[in-house]
Design brief:
- By secondary structure, the chain is α/β, with parallel strands linked by helices.
- The protein has two domains: 13-248, Phosphoenolpyruvate-binding domains (TIM Barrel), CATH 3.20.20.60; 251-279, no CATH class.
- Helices cover 42% and strands 13% of the residues.
- The chain is built from eleven helices and eight strands.
- The chain has helices at 13-22, 34-42, 54-57, 75-88, 107-121, 133-143, 159-162, 172-188, 200-209, 230-234, 251-268, and strands spanning 26-30, 47-50, 93-97, 125-127, 148-153, 192-196, 214-217, 225-228.
- The chain has an eight-stranded parallel beta barrel with strand order 1-2-3-4-5-6-7-8, surrounded by seven helices.
- Helix 6 (133-143) links the parallel strand 4 and strand 5.
- Helix 2 (34-42) packs across helix 4 and helix 6 (133-143) packs parallel to helix 8.
- It is globular and about 70 Å long.
- The chain starts with 12 loop residues before the first helix and ends in an 11-residue tail after the last helix.
- The mean pLDDT is 97.
- Bound molecules: 3-methyl-2-oxobutanoic acid (KIV).
- 3-methyl-2-oxobutanoic acid binds at residues 30, 49, 51-53, 97, 151, 194, 196, 217, 227, 229.
Length: 279
Amino acid sequence: MEAAPAPSRPVQVTDLSRWKSEGRRFAMLTAYDYTSAVWLDRAGIPILLVGDSLGGTMLGHRLRDGGPNTLPVTLEEVIHHARAVSRGVSHALVVGDMPFLSYHLGLDDATRSAGRLIKEAGVQAVKLEGAGPAIEVVSHLTERGIAVMGHLGLTPQWVNVLGGFRVQGRTEQAAQRLRSGLAELEQAGAFAVVLEGVPSRLAAELTAATGLPTIGIGAGPGCDGQVLVLHDLLGLTVGTVPKFAKPFASLGEEMLGAARRFQSEVEQGSYPDAEHSYG
Ligand code: KIV
């Protein structure tokens, strides 16, 4: 089946709740650079997230167990990558992730961080993880005209508290925490929420119970939208690929083949040939 046609005008945060009410599912992908942003925008992907997953995909930060690590990512790094993505986009909504410690030190500090993503990187919205104390931050930002996407469930910035990347909401108590976190986020004015690493049945229940558009990753088919890390989508991931991450291409293998063919032609002297040389 063909994907929906590319949006005819720039996507707005308000489109997501309309899509939810129309029952229209939507896709979000991470992007970290200009070239990928151009191609993903051309493909009609309506939302690009400059995620702090760039710590693993772009910068090679690893946890002690070898998994990707978002904790060292700085606001400067997200701004750097988000600027490049914004330059490549004509229609997609660009969301900038607020990295660890960029919204933990007080409301003014959080506003400054989010404001820098908007002013310096040109994003239209920010994303931050968790409920509890983060709810006050969400209210504070939305009251100041900053659109906020929430992120609940397996929140990677909480990896040390969660004891690793584990599916969340498996016990009734944990499921209840997710239900109340989601209600608080909606009340605080978030425009959407990522549900990560949540059992499918619970994610579907949460999606049905909230007015917030939910965007699942490892949360089954019952969410309003789905997000993947670009490297998982393209088959570029180094190391373990999570169970939910379906590779839709094998670009890692393609890259390997292209590099080896280039190397071999250089070594044999068949590249560059006349066609690829100036007369
Ligand atoms: O940082 C990120 O890329 C994310 C997505 C996985 C949702 O938060």
